[in-house]
Amino acid sequence: METGWLTLSPEEWTAVALSLKVASVGTLASLPFGVAIAWLLARREFWGKSLVNGLVHLPLILPPVVTGYLLLLSFGRRGPIGAVLEETFGLVFSFRWTGAALAAAVMGFPLMVRAIRLSMEAVDTRLEAAASTLGARPLIVFLTVTLPLSLPGVLAGMILGFAKAMGEFGATITFVSNIPGETQTLPSAIYSFIQVPGGETGALRLTLVAIAIAFAALIASEVLARRLSSRIEGR
Amino acid sequence: MLSFDLRQRLGDFHLDARFSGSGRLTALFGVSGSGKSSLIALLAGLSRPDDGVIEVGGRTLVDTGRGIFVPPHRRRIGCVFQEARLFPHLSVINNLDYGRRFSGQARDPKAMARVVELLGIGHLLDRGPSALSGGEKQRVAIGRALMAGPRLLLLDEPLASLDEARKAEILPYIERLRDEGDIPIVLVSHSVAEVARLASDMVVLSDGKVATSGTVADVLGRLDLMPEEMRSEGGAVLEMQVTSYDPRFDMSVLEAAAGRIHMPGDCGPAGRRLRVRIRARDVMIATGRPHGLSALNVLDGKIAAIVESGRAFVEVHVDCAGSRVIARITRQSAEGLELARGCAVHAVVKTVSLDSPHPPHNPEVT
């Protein structure tokens, strides 16, 4: 049997590389916010907590197209946030790969926050109390006790966010369209292939790549999580 | 110097406690539910009183009237909790160093060496907390609290989760801390034996209130002021000195002006000072010198007071050369023997009823 059909074309490579870039940047850039929000939800009582919780989970419940359209309205060049960001930082989202990363981050955010929050809630607050009686300020307690002890959850959150980002389609295509080399991620590329006659082999190739990446991420997270938890238990 | 005057309502429980003292080691004593833990959380700054004042060493930590509340990380109160609470992701040495490092104090290898030596934890430094026994964990937790440079040390039932052998392992370290250190200590305990052995002063908490407080000898001697639930544990506390040890019977002899006491086990070298608690219910009174008696300890004295204790019992306070020994006997016996103030009597104590600081040798216990 001929195996030449397995070789990716340059356009397909571009889509795969772009997807990896978009998902990685989206995940890493949203991580600090994810950790902060998760900590707020896990450890603090404040007015409007349920509202924050609801907002964070909104992308999980809304149709992705709606999320993408909302992003277009607010982060588009004429949107209230998009205009400010372009003026002050020169940061443009609409129809750029950065927009795809933003869409990926927003869609993965609820999953990331959820995983981190759960593992932070599992950290014994009595250890935090002990740390404060030893003279550590609240920020230090967070950095030296809460965060290290919830690292497995942070890692799980990152993997979940990354996986969601890799698969994100609806919000991305609504917000930044489907421009090869700029915003055409792996799912968009597969979608495009299926739209044209004779594109099935390309779609199949990219599907195999998507499966491979998903597996690699899963195995990497397993290995890392095991190492982390054995370090946390102090062996 | 520690003083507090606190009120806090937690559900149905109401704490209203007032105390001021400057003992080397003050015991907070009470049964579970008496408010010890609430009080400790308030002192450490882990909870806020509804209203009240806390002062430690002349520094006001809480004064609700003036709006003062110093957060826990600025109180410099070292805490040792019942469950040790070591950081599981840090090695023993990093646990010890945590307080110094994260409260911004300079590195002091001498202080570290002193603490490590004092607690005998030198061989544990590179281990993780999960590889330690319960007693070792508590010693590391004490070291960790000391290394943070505290002005007051709170020990919240550090022995409660340990078995007898582990307790016996920790007790001498707490004694060294009391005798060699200069940090005042507050020890929470529900064991009278522990309090009698370790504490100089005690505060008895009952149902959220301070039932009585004072030196350990005074408090344990005033059975009439004690809450009902601990009255059977009350009695005299005598300062005594070890004079000899007889390995043949595994028995030590201790002496004080009051007389001589036999204590089971090896109580250490001659000259060592020990506190001996003699429960009032374990003391018999004889009007003549007893003969043919198995009890080894007979202290001679004069009756200083007879205190009624309900209809069935009386407490006979016997003055033995300046020290007071208390006997709880039936009123029937007291009348039968025609006991009265000034009578010369003999107080008889079974050696078996004394808590030895060093349990008798037993080959099965390592």
From TrEMBL, chain A:
Q: Which residues form the ABC transmembrane type-1 domain?
A: 16-219
Q: How does it sit in the membrane?
A: Multi-pass membrane protein
**Listed transmembrane segments:** 20-42, 54-75, 95-118, 139-163, 203-225
In alphabetical order, the GO MF annotations are:
molybdate ion transmembrane transporter activity
Highest rank taxon of the organism:
Bacteria
| Protein's UniProt keywords contain Cell membrane | yes
Which Pfam families does this UniProt record tie to the protein? BPD_transp_1
Q: Which CDD domains match?
A: TM_PBP2
Q: Which GO terms describe its cellular component?
A: plasma membrane
Q: Does the keyword Repeat apply?
A: no
Q: What is its main location?
A: membrane
Q: Which InterPro entries does the record cross-reference, listed alphabetically? A: MetI-like (IPR000515), MetI-like_sf (IPR035906), ModB_ABC (IPR011867)
Q: Which UniProt keywords apply?
A: Cell inner membrane, Cell membrane, Membrane, Molybdenum, Transmembrane, Transmembrane helix, Transport
Q: What does this protein do?
A: Part of the binding-protein-dependent transport system for molybdenum; probably responsible for the translocation of the substrate across the membrane.
Record's protein name: Molybdenum transport system permease
UniProtKB/TrEMBL annotation, chain B:
Give one Pfam family. TOBE
PANTHER family tied to this protein: ABC TRANSPORTER I FAMILY MEMBER 10
Q: What is this protein called?
A: Molybdate transport system ATP-binding protein
According to the entry, every stretch annotated as the ABC transporter domain falls at 1-232
Family, per entry:
Belongs to the ABC transporter superfamily.
Against SUPFAM superfamilies, the record matches this protein to:
MOP-like, P-loop containing nucleoside triphosphate hydrolases
Keyword entries, A-Z: ATP-binding, Cell inner membrane, Cell membrane, Membrane, Molybdenum, Nucleotide-binding, Translocase, Transport
Query: Among its keywords, does the record have Transport?
Result: yes
The keyword Cell inner membrane is assigned to this record: yes
GO molecular function annotation: ABC-type transporter activity; ATP binding; ATP hydrolysis activity; molybdate ion transmembrane transporter activity
Its GO CC terms are: membrane
Cite the Mop domain residue spans from the record.
292-358
